[in-house]
Amino acid sequence: MCVRGLSARLAVSIVSIIVTAAPAAAPALAAETAPCVDTSATLTVEEQRLTRAVPQEILRRAGFDPVASEFAQALCAASSYREAQRVVTAHGQRLWRRAVDRAQGRGLPGGDLSRDDDRPLYWARLGMTGVLRRWRPAFELSGPGREKLLHRLERGSRGQDAIRFTGGKGVKRVLVTGFDPFTLDRDIRISNPSGATALALDGTTVRTGAGLIRIETAVFPVRWGDFADGMVERALRPHLPRADLFATVSQGRVGRIDVERFNGAWRGGFPDNENASSTGTIPVSDPARQPQWTVTTLPYKDIVAASTGRFPVYDNTQVAEIPAGATDPVVRPDGPTEGSTARSGGGGDYLSNEIAYRATLLRDRLRLDIPGGHVHTPVLQFGADNTDPATGAVTDPDFVRNRLDIIDQIRAIIVVAADADRAGR
């Protein structure tokens, strides 16, 4: 029976079921942990990747390897749903804070992996969601009840419920979002510099020539389903009215940064982190009033003209559309034409474009007169002698340097945008 005082050994066994790659070990583990683990529960595609050596190495070298077992121990000691809610909230928010603190140099690093690395947060979260998905509590737990706990864990461990704009008069409030790593079946070592940027900037105050800016951040999953369920709007709606500027950020093209001028209302179907596809018009509330395009209000001219770092910065106006009265899509280098149907925004037709579309549509529906839009970072590349996913190391000096340079340049771009807006008003 799952009761208070569950031993650490049992909690570790729960995690073992999630991460073990050896099918022969499953029966013994299942017998040992049957009171608290439902081994018949299917893990997601993302959670199943945690069995591989690279995620385990990343967790170990960041000191995040005990996170899932500590969560399991606390969860299996919960004797009621209300207590489980408290456990899930506390451990989710603790993971986010731990990742932010590590990225910003607070406390011991916990291992030899560079502090700027976003991947420990991603893989530790998946360990926790796997624990929660296979948890068998001592009390009755419905499917919807478990889903609510999973959503609570996602929000807390992504910083979505920790956005707090503080500061006195004259402090400009900036909201920045990033993403999880993706295309992990291509290279499981992948890091996402937008997520790393979110960790590096969360809760920071930056002094600029025109005053102070306060930056709050959150990270989003690379999953079509979460976006269709309204995760972006739930996370941003309470805070956009208090923000003076926002930037959704994601990884984009090799060797360049793009400020995406136009966002299209179209999903192109590229598989997400669960290997799910979705093609069609972006699903939003009140679809009858849904525009085909939204437009950035970031001061893109100032951003492009500024010296922000080593990567060239572009005002990207290219889109793909079906012109009014036509049936076939065409590429337009200078933005959409009147009455056209979107097939690709400047940021493409994947979740980068979608978060930009959703955030700017929310801005417009709330009638907010604030700068906001999407910035694509360069692709984060490994060193020239570390490009083979099968044999390559999980990190190298060039990889770290590239990520740090991207973080610094996105920070500089945000400062330019904040100062340009302040000067313009």
TrEMBL record:
Keyword line: Signal
Signal sequence range: 1-21
Keyword field contains 4Fe-4S: no
Region of interest called Disordered, as start-end residue ranges on this chain: 326-349
Name listed for the protein in its UniProt record: Pyroglutamyl peptidase
Protein source organism: Sphaerisporangium dianthi
Classification lineage: Bacteria, Bacillati, Actinomycetota, Actinomycetes, Streptosporangiales
